[in-house]
C-alpha cells in the first residue's frame, strides 16, 4: 500500500470516528450514566426499572421525532404538549360520551393533531409568523380548547379494546416500543434516503441556497409541520391507551422533553444537522437521568432545574461546535 493510500485510509477512518462521536456521543454518555446510577443504586439495573425507562421514553421519543425533523429544517414547535392533550380529550370524549367506534375516535384524534400541524405550517411558512410565536399561540389555543371540551374533568376508563396499544405485548416486546422503533426506522429512511429528507436538510443548512436550487422551501416547511403533527397524534394514541384516561396532564411538558431529547441527541438547533436515531438515544439519556435521580430521591423541583441545565448545556455545546467550524 502506497503512502498516499495509507494516509487516505487513516483520514477516512478519522472522519468516520469524528462523525460518529459528533452524532452519537450521547450513546457513550448514556452508557456512562447507567453505570454511575447502577453503582449508586443497584436496583437501577433491574429488568423492571429498565423496562420502565423504555416505556417512559416511548411517547416522548415519538414526539421528539417530529421536533427533530423541525429542528433539522430550521423550525420549532412549542405546541406539542397541549396538542396531544387536546387530541386525547377529543378521542376520549368521542369514545365514552358519544359512543363512537374507538378506532374511529382515535383516528379523529390523530387528525386533530395533523390539523394543528397544518395550521402551524401555514402560519410559519406562508404567513411568515415566526415559528416560536406561531406555535406558542397554537399551544394556548389547544390548551383552551382542551379545557372547553371537558371542563378539565378526567375521562376514564376507556374501551378495553384499545388497551393493547400502550399496555399490550407481542411476545416479550411491548407493542408501543415496536411502534416507536418502526417509526424511527421509517423516518431514518425518509430523512437519509429520500429526496424529501435531503431537501429538509438542505433547507435547514441554507434556506436561500435551497430556494435558488429549485426547492420549494415553504411547501417543505409545511410538510415538516405535518410530520410533526402526525407524530404528536401517534404519541397521543399510545399515551391515551397506556394511561387508560384523558386528563389535563396528558402530554404535559412534552415539547420541552422532545427539545431536550433532540438537542442532546445531536440535532443542531441551527438546522441542517442531526441523525434521527440520535434523537432516540437523546431521549433515553434524558429519561434515564431523571429516572435515576428519582430513585436517588432527588427533589422533583430540583430535577426541573436539571432539565433546564441539560438543555442549556446541549444548546451551548452545539453553538460552540458550530462557531468553531465557521
What order do the helices and strands follow? HHHHHHEEHHHHHHH
Number of strands: 2
How is the quaternary structure best described? Answer: single chain
Largest sheet: 2 strands, antiparallel
Strand order of the largest sheet: 1-2
Low-confidence stretches: 14-19
Beta fraction of the residues?
under 5%
Number of helices: 13
Binned, the helix content reads: over 70%
Nearest-angstrom radius of gyration? 21 Å
Mean pLDDT level:
89
Structural class comes to: mainly alpha
Provide the domain count.
1
Q: Which CATH first-tier class would you pick?
A: Mainly Alpha
Annotated CATH architecture: Orthogonal Bundle
Overall shape: globular
Through-space gap between termini: 35 Å
CATH third-tier fold name: ABC transporter involved in vitamin B12 uptake, BtuC
Topology:
Blueprint: H1 3-40, H2 47-73, H3 80-96, H4 102-126, H5 131-150, H6 163-167, E1 169-170, E2 173-174, H7 175-193, H8 195-205, H9 207-212, H10 217-243, H11 254-264, H12 276-295, H13 300-325
Antiparallel strand pairs: 1-2
Helix pairs in contact: 1-12, 2-7, 2-8, 2-10, 2-11, 2-12, 3-4, 3-5, 3-10, 4-5, 4-10, 7-8, 8-10, 11-12, 11-13
Amino acid at each position: 500500500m502506497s503512502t498516499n493510500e495509507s494516509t487516505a485510509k487513516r483520514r477516512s477512518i478519522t472522519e468516520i470516528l469524528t462523525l460518529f462521536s459528533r452524532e452519537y456521543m450521547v450513546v457513550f454518555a448514556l452508557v456512562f450514566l447507567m453505570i454511575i446510577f447502577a453503582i449508586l443504586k443497584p436496583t437501577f439495573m433491574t429488568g423492571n426499572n429498565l423496562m420502565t425507562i423504555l416505556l417512559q421514553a416511548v411517547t416522548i421519543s415519538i414526539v421528539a421525532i417530529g421536533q427533530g425533523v423541525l429542528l433539522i429544517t430550521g423550525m420549532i414547535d412549542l405546541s406539542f404538549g397541549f396538542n396531544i392533550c387536546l387530541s386525547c380529550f377529543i378521542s376520549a370524549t368521542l369514545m365514552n360520551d358519544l359512543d363512537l367506534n374507538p378506532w374511529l375516535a382515535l383516528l379523529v384524534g390523530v387528525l386533530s393533531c395533523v390539523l394543528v400541524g397544518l395550521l402551524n405550517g401555514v402560519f410559519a411558512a406562508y404567513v411568515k409568523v415566526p415559528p416560536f410565536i406561531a406555535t406558542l399561540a397554537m399551544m394556548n389555543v389547544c390548551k383552551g380548547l382542551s379545557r372547553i371540551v371537558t371542563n378539565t374533568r378526567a375521562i376514564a376508563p376507556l374501551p378495553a379494546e384499545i388497551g393493547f396499544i400502550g399496555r399490550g405485548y407481542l411476545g416479550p416486546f411491548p407493542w408501543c416500543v415496536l411502534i416507536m422503533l418502526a417509526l424511527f426506522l421509517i423516518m431514518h429512511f425518509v430523512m437519509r434516503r429520500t429526496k424529501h429528507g435531503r431537501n429538509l436538510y438542505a433547507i435547514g443548512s441554507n434556506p436561500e441556497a435551497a430556494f435558488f436550487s429549485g426547492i420549494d422551501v415553504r411547501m417543505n416547511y409545511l410538510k415538516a409541520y405535518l410530520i410533526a403533527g402526525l407524530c404528536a397524534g401517534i404519541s397521543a394514541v399510545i399515551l391515551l391507551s397506556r394511561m387508560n384516561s384523558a386528563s389535563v396532564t396528558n402530554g404535559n411538558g412534552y415539547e420541552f422533553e422532545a427539545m431536550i431529547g433532540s438537542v442532546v441527541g445531536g440535532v443542531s438547533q441551527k438546522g441542517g444537522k442531526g441523525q434521527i436515531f440520535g434523537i432516540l438515544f437523546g431521549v433515553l439519556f434524558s429519561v434515564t437521568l431523571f429516572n435515576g435521580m428519582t430513585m436517588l430521591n432527588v427533589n422533583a423541583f430540583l430535577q426541573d432545574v436539571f432539565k433546564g441545565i441539560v438543555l442549556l448545556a446541549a444548546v451551548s455545546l452545539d453553538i460552540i461546535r458550530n462557531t468553531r467550524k465557521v
